[in-house]
Structures are given as structure tokens and as C-alpha cells.
Amino acid sequence: MFKITHFPQTDFQFNNFRVIDGSMKDMLKKFNTTETWIDVETLANLKGVSKRAIRLSFNSKNSNYEAKIENGKGGHLYKIRLSSIEEDLQIKYIHEYYDTLSTTNNIIELHNFEPKAEKIISFKQRELALAKYDLIKIWENYRLEQKQKGISKKVADKEFLTTYNTGLLYSKIFNVLGNISIGALYRWKMLLDKNPDWTVLVGNYNYTANGCYRTSLNENEIKIFLNILLSPNKFSIGRAISLTQYILKEKNAENIPTEVTFRRYAKWYKANNLDKWTLARDGMKALKDKVEPYIVRDISMLEVGQVLIADGHTLNFQVINPFTGRPSRATLIGFLDWKSGGLVGYDIMLEENTQNIANALRNAILNMDKVPEYVYQDNGRAFKSKFFNGDSKFEELGFTGVYQKLGITPVYATPYNARAKVIERFFLDFQESFEKLMPSYIGTSIDNKPAYMNRNEKLHKQIHSQKANFVPTIEQALILIKEWLKFKHSQPCPNNRNKTIAQMLATIQKQNIDESQLDDLMMDTVVKHIGRNGIRFLKADYFNDALYGIRGKCVVKYNLNDLSYIKIYSMKGEFLCRADRVTATHPLAHLLGDVKDIEDYKQKIRKQKQLQNKTIKAVKEHFSLEDIDLIKSKLIDAEISKEELIIEQPAIEKQEVKKEKTKQPENYVQNRKRPIFKDNYERYEWHMKNGCIGNEDRQWLSEYIRSEEFKIIYEK
Fold this sequence. Notes:
Layout: E1 11-14, E2 17-20, H1 24-29, E3 37-39, H2 40-47, H3 51-57, E4 67-72, E5 75-81, H4 87-97, E6 108-110, H5 123-148, H6 153-165, H7 171-177, H8 182-194, H9 219-229, H10 237-250, H11 259-272, H12 274-282, H13 284-290, E7 307-320, E8 327-337, E9 343-349, H14 354-368, E10 374-377, H15 386-389, H16 392-395, H17 402-406, E11 409-412, H18 423-433, H19 458-467, H20 474-488, E12 492-493, E13 496-500, H21 501-505, H22 515-521, E14 524-531, E15 534-537, E16 540-543, E17 552-559, E18 562-569, E19 575-581, H23 589-592, H24 595-618, H25 625-647, H26 649-657, H27 668-673, H28 680-690, H29 695-705, H30 708-715
């Protein structure tokens, strides 16, 4: 620690040290500045300018620097007499390069001194530092020997330095250090006097004592350079340098730094300010993903099947679109068990929708035979839809979301936070070890697409079209993924290297999941109107006898993977029925259709009559049986009379209008249009459409309606 004394005339601050008591000249007298020479680099650092600027100042008329030229290892070296530079720079030099002026009268004290950070010493730095250390010890011994002979330090130092710079006496050290100056010996000795550890002699050309980069760039040059370098447009370092040099030239700047100087500063800035570099050039997401520290999770605290991680992955190979028949990209929805790292449930869809996600979750639950406690999933719209989380309106009607019904707690990942989703690493492995094996692989981006997709690659296009032009369907892709998962799950578990993924999954505690109940929970809901033909949904009709005679709103539950049926609930949540999809009937089933078409037509006619009979029976409690029979007989007679009017009345009216035409015989229609009937059912159906030709037909129809065959087909 240096001694502080007080001089009444002067009190000033300079770079963390204070000179007190006396004048600058009094202090400088304590040190022989006249016999001290410093190199260009040292003076440049003291002034905060480039070495080139110092050399150019030698030729200036206003320069008072006293310089000389010495022969160095790399050629001629400029030396400047310390006494010829500015007095404040002399003080700064003494402060930075010397520990003390004398052993008895110290006048300098350092304030707020920060110890140097631990440095990583390279082999070259180690070699240089040890050579300096050896040379200082030899020099000190030489001084001591000459002092005993009565020779002054000044003369001894000059003789020692001259002898050393010849390279003959200490050749090994000279081969490492080359020519040196007396000032360098003084600086190294000062460092060792402070700390006898040789590591203090390790060169520190990049950093000053306060941790800033030691560069010849001034503040203005650094500001312009960083404004370009940190642009979100992400200029390359070389382009930023050329633009900076151009701007400085346009501003008539002198002594424009070289490209090497800028590049060294850019390298240092990026290494020591990576957070600023990343945020400015790449944005907040890159800062979080590349720079910010991450939380290390202890996966051992989880149970297998307890937490699933869900996310979607755009497939990098094409599949056949079932609607268009053309190749297209699809999305894989996956549910990954966090503990084991195994993909337990998945589904492929052309676009992200809740039903496919529900199907993937269903597969995960069935494969594990367990309902997870938590699902850690993406922040997308499909995952956050009312299908999973419920809807307040439907809660009043007795409906809640799937997660609530299953007892699952959803946890949503932070948007654009890839590190929070472990499944991202799985998809990366899936891409490298599975997708690239697919013949329809198209790459992850335009830059890394296969060669056959590039222009003018005729050879690759030919090879691909002949040997690898296979595009799987969605069903085929699912089968291939299933086979690949056998390989994947045979690999060591990422959270337990002593077991495979399959072995970890085998430890799940089974819950004996009821598949039918699960399917019911996974169905989506929508409000629809009940019409004459049941419910119109997705361009199809769904009907059940329970909907006959009902009008109004209802709640429909459906599964997009199986649209052969839907489930109907009242608006109060009461189950009404299961409605099957209504199929269209052949318009001329008996004439142009096959056996199935005819049977389908019969069944639908039978169903209509059954519903009609149901309605008649329902009102019997309001009428007597005699009244019902009377009504029924009158309905039949009225139906027959109506048929007669349809066939015969227009012919009579036509005769009255045009009397010149001759009346056709009774069997005219029969002979020309009546088909040959295979059975009574066909004849009855024909009369219902075309009417009766004559009394014979009317009598036959009246008897057939009262027959047992008619009752079996149309009344039951």
C-alpha cells in the first residue's frame, strides 16, 4: 500500500490514482524520465490513439516528441523519450508501469484497485512469460554483480541490454523474446515486485485493467461500426467493416483503421457481449434459446405415464391427400411420455384440428392403459380450443371439456420457447433417422431439399422417378412410423441409461381403461336442428326412429374418424339416441338396381310405414277403435280414389276438350307401359307410383291391402 501525503497546492484525480502534496515537477524529479525511452505502442495506449497516428505525428511540425530508431526483431523500432511527452502522460506511464518511485518516499496510491481476473494461459503465452521471468532474474543478478564493482545501475543496464540484444549470450531467451528495450525490463520488474508469480508477466494485449478491449479504434469509429454490425439485417463482419470505412472516409476522417483492427474488435465484442449481439441481430427468441441460462429439471421425480408432452410436427415427406389423391405435406401430432421419452400416442392430419389431437391422445391413453395426470402442450389454438378445456355455455348444459372429464390438468408452454418442450428433441431425431429414409422426403427447407427437386438435375430426377417415386398414404405412413418406433423404443432411455424406452414404458401401472367410454369422451360436440329427415351434418343426413316427430335444437357428439354415426343429446344433456348415417337410394331400384338396391328400397318403404303406423297407434287413446278403423279404411279408399284421379281424370278432361280424338282402349296403358311383375310387392309399388288402369287393378289393390303380406311388410 502506498503512502498518501498532502501538498497544499495540487490535488487532482487521474485514472484511479491521486497525486497530492507538491507539484507535478516535484514528483517527476523522483524519476529519471530523460533516460527512459518508450515504444510507439506504449505511447499509443497512453494517448488512446492508434500506433499509426503516433508515427505520423513524428513528421508534424508541432510535434515535440524526441524519437530514435532501433533495430528490432521485426525491423526498425521507434523509441520516444519519456521526458518529451505530455506531463500528464508521464504520470500515467509511471502509475501504470512502475510500482514506486523510491522505497522511502512514496507519493502515489491506487484507489478502487480491482484484481485481475483469472486468465487462461496458452502455450505461447506461457513460453513468453517464463522467458521474461528468467531474463529479469539474470538482469537483477548482473546488476548486483556490477554494483559490487562500483558500476552504477545506469551503466550496468546499458551494458546488459546491449549484450542481450546481440543474441549471443542468452540465445534461447533471445529466440523467444527478440530485441527488447530498457523500458520493457523496467515494466516486467515492476510487475514482479508487486507479485513474484511469473503469471503476472503473461501478455494482456486485448484487455486493460478495467476489462475493456484495448484497441486503436476511437469512440466514434466504434459507434459507427457497432451500429452497422448490430443491425437486425445481420450484415457480415466484412460488409460492416467496408461500410464503416466508407462512412469514415465520407466524413473526412484521418487515419482510418485497417480491416484487421475492425475484425479483431468484432471478434472480441461478440465473445464478450454475446447477449447484446444475439438480441440485436436475431431477436428475443434467439436470446432465450442461445444465451440465457436454462433450468435443469430433475426428471427422476416424475413417474412413467404421469406427464405427457404434446406438440405438432410438420412432416418433411409427402403423403397422399385422401381428398385430392395428390402428394401433400401433413402434420404429425404426438404425445411423448416425459419420463421414458417414448412416443405413446400419435396421429397424422392434413391440418391441425382438435379431433386429430383428441385421437392422438386417445391412442396414448390406450397404449399406456393409463390416463396421464398432466399434459404439457403447445400454446396453439387447436390445443387451447373449447374441445379440451370446456365451454362455459356447455357446462350449464352438462358438458365439460375432455381434459376435465378425464381428470387431466393441461399445462401450456411459453410461446416460441422451444427449450421448454422436450418433444422437440424427439422430432429432431425423428427427422434424421426416419423422415430421411422416406422416398418422398422433400427436406426441411428450400436450402436442404434433395437434389432431384433442384432445377436441371435430370439424372437425379430420373433416378427418383424410377426407383424412389413412392408416396405413402396416411395409413401407410402410420404403419411405417409404428415400425420405426419399435427401433426407437429399443434404444436407451434418455433419463435412465440402464433401461430402454420400452422397458421404462412397461413399468406403467395399468388402469384397465374402458375403450368405449373413452371413445365417448373423445367425441366433439356441436348444436344442430332436428328436421324431417333427422339431422343434417357434414353434408349427410343422420336419422333414428327416436327423432321422428321431434323438432328443435339438439347437441350432436361426433368423431371425425368414424362418421358412420353420431350421438344425439337434448339441450339439457339427456341422451336421446344414436343416429346412423342415411344412405341414398337408387332412383330406379327395381328396374336398374341389383339385389342390394331393391332390398334397401324395401327396407326404407317398410320403415316409412312403420313410422306411420306408430303415429296412428299413438293417437288411439284419443279415439275409439271403431273410429280408428273407419279412419283407416277411409284413408285407404281416399288413396285409391286419388290414384284413379291421377290416371283417369286427365284422360276424360282431354276427351272433353278435344272430342275429335278417339278414346284409347282400357288396356292401352297396360299393354304399352305396364311391366311384368315378379311378385305382388312390385305390383303394389308400381300402382302407388302410376295408379290403377281399371277396375281389375282397383279390386286387386283393395284385396292386397287387406292381405297378410301387406301387413307384414308395411304395418309392422
